[in-house]
Amino acid sequence: MTPEEFRAAAHELVDWVADYRLGVADRPVQSVLRPGQVRSRMPAHAPAEPQPLAELVTMLNEAVVPGITQTQSPGFYGWFPSNAALASVLGDHVSSGVAALGITWQSAPALTEVEQVVTEWLRELCGLSDAWRGAIQDTASTGTLVALLAARERASGMSIDGGGLQACPAPLVVYSSAHCHSSVEKAVLLAGFGRDNLRHVEVDPVTYALRPESLRAAMAADLAAGRVPAAVVAAIGTTGTTAMDPVREMCVVAAEFGAWVHVDAAMAGSAMLLPECRHLFDGVELADSLVWNPHKWMGTILDCSLLYVRDVDHLVACMSTTPPYLRSQADDDVVQFKDWGIPLGRRFRALKLWFHLHLDGVQAIRQRLRRDLAHAAWLAEAVAAEPGWRVLAPVQLQTVCLRHEPEGLTGAELDRHTLAWADAVNASGKAFVSPSVLDGRWMVRVSIGAEATERADVEALWALLRETALSP
Amino acid sequence: MTPEEFRAAAHELVDWVADYRLGVADRPVQSVLRPGQVRSRMPAHAPAEPQPLAELVTMLNEAVVPGITQTQSPGFYGWFPSNAALASVLGDHVSSGVAALGITWQSAPALTEVEQVVTEWLRELCGLSDAWRGAIQDTASTGTLVALLAARERASGMSIDGGGLQACPAPLVVYSSAHCHSSVEKAVLLAGFGRDNLRHVEVDPVTYALRPESLRAAMAADLAAGRVPAAVVAAIGTTGTTAMDPVREMCVVAAEFGAWVHVDAAMAGSAMLLPECRHLFDGVELADSLVWNPHKWMGTILDCSLLYVRDVDHLVACMSTTPPYLRSQADDDVVQFKDWGIPLGRRFRALKLWFHLHLDGVQAIRQRLRRDLAHAAWLAEAVAAEPGWRVLAPVQLQTVCLRHEPEGLTGAELDRHTLAWADAVNASGKAFVSPSVLDGRWMVRVSIGAEATERADVEALWALLRETALSP
To answer: Taking the CB of residue A209, how many other CB atoms lie within 10 A of it?
Structure first.
């Protein structure tokens, strides 16, 4: 395809994207397709000859768009806000267009340096001291894995340079609350610690925050048994209820045992942009690593997860390999982001952050986050005031965990009711919520914060929930 | 930013990208910026208020474009072809525009199913049997890490479900040639095997291919010493010289020890599309996993690396975590790509492969690959025929390793000469090549295969090399 052919096709697709975004509120929020329906629409073999763009556009309209859950819809309250601000989409377009190859500083100095600048901007906006340095990872799953690898190597005295984790004399142990994200368990397993060496520390029954005294007891017990407390993962904003683990106290406990502290603020990290929320992150400065995702609530399009660390030298010692064909004269003066994560080749992801912040500005982003906090507070109050309904966890930010508990309905019967009306809400196409389990019982998470969601949408949601729960 | 504001800005940027691509041949191939020059152009703090697009465009022109090495230039012969076919860029644009969230099948059925379809298309085009299933990873570094994690778990009897790698009674060992990519060493270290448990097996002094009899001896020695041969990494196309490890024989040896075989064909995998090259991959069907990158020579824009495995159930057992909020009724009927790799959230990367194959067609891609093979053969012949010049390794595909060896110049003096003229070639802005080390001496790798490179460009390069080497 020549640049002129690209120009014509890209103009057409820009209009397609703009029209799609204009119409997203009118689509069913939940994908309406059954397993296999998209596949069955596609050719069995790759085409030998060039095919017309029009065919792709037809497929986009008939299979792709109906085949995704509309995260950009005002009716999206699922999982977590997964905003893709159009300003950041522009940055992504340019990134694809220039197709820079990020393998070393030399391969694309601008890719490296813009990433340095925007991660510095966000560090400052989050109120982190300049002891921290950040890099863009694809997701928090990867950032947490990288952090736990660094923790593993610190606890094992750089076992990678010898016999590896398998040569460690005493088992290394990782601690988190049972409410932490599944990516923590995954990272523990992939890093080789083993499921037996992941401790799920008790949480407070009301706030669902990890109990520091239980953490201390668990670490002391492991130490007494000849094991090595290696890392603690604190969740600032658990996935289930946005519970806030007490980071300061956890860091104090971890320090007693020399353990690494990693903070997972994937969703809630956006709240660090708001001075009035900063107290929720009290003590974060004492941690060793922190991951948060602008690609969630803040709205820089996926994949844009930030991993901040304090000891860059240690991180680089764990992640660096430099074969001769990647050496250059600039090596001593520059940052090599390949040594801050797993992949060697990197896209120019900093452009989407840069475009987003430059074109929207920080104040507008902050205003939107505040709007969402107010929506959640309003909904929580409405739910709490309604007979037969319950708010199940403190509303710390923009997630409201709720249940309809009709007179006399308990146990498995209540679970069936909850899942029935949640499914009916999703099947309506008007809104999408995520059922989840809390204290062994199904509940419904309403995660507010889609860029398009206004107060009227939340009011309509609450009416829909009540109506549906009465006759699912 | 509203959809209409996006529409206007995106049209402007489409023209910017098309114009950039039209003019890329006229730019210096190597970035001309010094460390810090891009940073120094950017504001110290994120803007509070929205800023004009025009400012971004100015920065793109003055800092970003001069700040990248032009991988899309006909004069790009560095590292490896890093093509970003404009048809695939269109797919990337749409992916950003629809902003699908790939965390489960349910979150975006189309994202999952289009990925199934295009990985099937490419499996078939590569001549792999339908015993293989593929998924898109960001890079081969990640794919190789995932493969070695699966290998680790097979060799350790699923240690993740118990005490982890640290509880394994005998050290697990990984084997590759010393010519394998740095990502193999990195994956070995990150997976916890330890540097002591990575064996660099001897290679043939002429072909630089791993010697199977040396592999067998190394594995037998480890077994005799109480260690466990866990995994073998075969390179089909090493980074240095595109050497072809003998996969069939390596698989036979590995099978004797029950070791996993992972094939790294990151760059050379594109040659599997050509029936006449398929013999280079003889025996690949016997391996356990294979990674190759359409985002290199084939030209689907980064990040688009394919990981194929034969035992999907084992891979999923190693990588799967499913918390309640990700469960859905469709779980039993669908593929969950989150369990095929590290990240939970995934972009709709299949779109770029689909657009690329659909709009360009397979025949045109094959023709381009054949063109590049012919260019490399021509250059190798020219170099070999020129007094004072030497081709240093068999030209298996599109990489020519060469050196100018003037009468009487040896050792460190020859190294200085090589680096001097290679740097001068790159400083000219007309072409970009990668110096590297072979058998302890610097040489120059000419990696042919930029989409824009035609025969006349390769002829001009050869003239430039000769001219520059005579007076660097």
So the answer is: 24
Round to whole Å and give the CA distance between A108 and A336. Answer: 11
Using CB atoms, pick whichever of A19, A101, A113 lies closest to residue B39: A113
Q: Which residues of B40-69 are buried (b: 16+ CB within 10 A; e: fewer)?
A: ebbeeebbeebeebeebbebbeebbbbbbb
**Of all helices (H) and strands (E), which one includes residue A20?**
helix A3-23
B82 occurs within a structural domain:
no
Bridge-based pairing state of the strands A289-292 and B399-404? unpaired
Subunit contact A345:B121, Cβ cutoff 8 A: no
**DSSP letter string over A147-210?**
HHHHHHHHHTTSGGGTT-GGG-SS-EEEEEETTS-HHHHHHHHHTT--GGGEEEE-B-TTT--B
Could you list the residue range(s) of the whole structural domain that residue A63 is in?
Answer: 3-68
Token pair in block for residue A451: 């860029």
Whether A351 contacts B56, CB under 8 Å: no
* CATH number, domain containing residue B311: 3.40.640.10
Note whether A229 and A175 are within 8 A (CB). yes
In DSSP terms, A404 is beta-bridged to: A389
Question: Are A354 and A378 in the same domain?
Answer: no
Establish, for the pair of chains A and B, how many residue pairs have beta carbons separated by less than 8 Å.
512
State how far the Cα of A134 lies from the Cα of A289, in Å rounded to an integer: 9
Name the A residues in 264-303 with CB < 8 Å from any B CB: 295, 301-303
Place of tokens 């309250």: A77
Q: CA-CA distance, A144 to B172, in Å (whole number)?
A: 25
Q: Is A381 on the interface with B (CB under 8 A)?
A: no
Strand order in the sheet with A172-177: A133-137, A305-309, A289-292, A260-264, A228-235, A172-177, A198-201
The token duo for B418 is 């090589």
A329 to chain B: nearest residue by CA?
B423
Same domain? For A186 and A304 the reply is yes
Same domain for B397 and B332, yes or no, is no
Query: How close B177 comes to chain A (CA, Å)?
Result: 14
Going by C-alpha positions, the residue among B294, B109, B91 that lies closest to residue A40 is B109
pLDDT in tens for each of the 472 residues of chain B? 999 999 999 999 999 999 999 999 999 999 989 999 999 999 999 999 999 999 999 999 999 999 999 999 999 999 999 999 999 999 999 999 999 999 999 999 999 999 999 999 999 999 999 999 999 999 999 999 999 999 999 999 999 999 999 999 899 999 999 899 999 999 999 999 999 999 999 999 999 999 999 999 999 999 999 999 999 999 999 999 999 999 999 999 999 999 999 999 999 999 999 999 999 999 999 999 999 999 999 999 999 999 999 999 999 999 998 776 677 777 778 999 999 999 999 999 999 999 999 999 999 999 999 999 999 999 999 999 999 999 999 999 999 999 999 999 999 999 999 999 999 999 999 999 999 999 999 999 999 999 999 999 999 999 999 999 998 7
Enter the tokens of residue A23: 């119409």
Which amino acid is present at A409?
L
Cα A430 off chain centre by: 24
Instruction: List C-alpha distances in Å: B397 to B79, B293, B296, B381, B411.
Output: 14, 15, 14, 13, 29
Backbone angles phi, psi at A263, to 5 degrees: -105, 125
Helix intervals (H) in B157-307: 182-190, 212-224, 247-257
Direct distance between the N- and C-terminal alpha carbons of chain B, in angstroms, rounded to an integer: 52
Sign of CA dihedral B60, B62, B67, B68: positive
Give how many domains chain A has, as a whole number.
Answer: 3
CA dist., res. A259 & res. A193, Å (int): 14
Same structural domain, B344 and B409:
no
Instruction: Report the distance separating Cα B284 and Cα B280, nearest Å.
Output: 9
